[in-house]
Amino acid sequence: MKIALISYYDDKxxxxxxxxxxFRQFEKDGHEVCMFVYQKTTSDPAVxxxxxxxxxxxxxxxxxxxxxxxKPREMFSYMxxxxxxLVRAVNQFKPDVVHVHWTGKHVxxxxxxxxxxxxxxxxxxxxxxxxxxCHYSGSCEGFKTACGNCPVLQSKHxxxxxxxxxxxxxxxxxxxxxxxxxxSRWMTEQASxxxxxxxxxxxxxxxxxxxxxxxxxxxxxxxARTRLLFTAASxxxxxxxxxxxxxxxxxxxxxxxxxxxxxxxxxxxxxATTGFQTEMLKPADDDTVLASYYQQADMVVVPSRxxxxxxVIIEALACGLPVVAFRTGGNADLIIHRHNGFLADKMxxxxxxxxxxxxxxxxxxxxxxxxxxxxxxxxFSPEKISKQYINLFNQTLSGR
Length: 400
What we know:
There is one protein chain. The chain is an alpha/beta fold and about 400 residues long. The protein has two domains: about 1-210 and about 380-400, 3-Layer(aba) Sandwich (Rossmann fold); about 225-380, Rossmann fold (3-Layer(aba) Sandwich). About 35% of the residues lie in helices and about 15% in strands. The protein contains 14 helices and 13 strands. It has a seven-stranded parallel sheet with strand order 3-2-1-4-5-6-7, sandwiched between helices. Strands 10-9-8-11-12-13 form a six-stranded parallel sheet, with helices on both faces. Helix 11 links the parallel strand 12 (about 325) and strand 13 (about 340-345). Helix 7 crosses helix 12 and helix 10 crosses helix 13. The two termini are about 15 Å apart.
């Protein structure tokens, strides 16, 4: 099969990594694949960077103006400007299917979907494809109607810019059948209940990690202290990632029993006052380096308030690490409570601490580690997941 993938990055960031891993597995399975990105981070010859200068300048001006006008308090994308160069390059490749991943606000405009000659599949790494601009809606359910009164834009108007973008997407997608792919069951449900998504097919297909790279440490860990790993892009500054809840959970733990390993460039002031021994790990995109971070830990804590299908959880479990996270979003797709990790009550710091203590005090830690690894091997291996994607593509093509 001939497959074109579209993403902001290739091997960078959570969504970019998920897309690139799938791209490499398609290649390995013998499919003809080309990946089109806005910003290339690898030397892979099958990855093509398309960043037209005029479009970049136009995006810079419009984005800066709209940010000044609306002052979004969280991540918000303005999908307005077409990318004719991208559409032309993809159509010249003549793929059987086009598989779109995270596009941010730069890669393409909604109208570009309709101009793709092949069927389009859009993997939902966040909610932006079916909202008026936000990437996670929080408690707002405006995307189920037509947006408006957008809390991210701090708007009190029913017909604000979020509402306008929903109309633009409805019109653009209306002339093209788009299959939305939710990585988690939660994301699939959100998409199918949205004004945009309910007009299209919404299916659930997960992502994966390379199990030959992300694997348990060869040397058993015998340290006296239990080592907690906290890692997330913008983890200490993005409210959704729940860093404040992680700090709250530490109040219920004994500092002399745990060592914190935190991925970041600088020690956050809130961590400096906890009394816990803390080691900072330099942020890295290289999977081998990331795997070594997991192999240095005993468990991973993911305190996100909202989470789709976390790469961190996938990678940690693949490395044989039990994970503590809230029972929210797609976390329950990966974590089986008290089997390969602990699902804490939503947004409850003490419950998060309970999970950390339960894993730290578990007398059969090797069983937990084995359960974690096997949960990835049995349910989320690259070979199994890529085959599910190909089956979906074939089903769609046969029904045209």
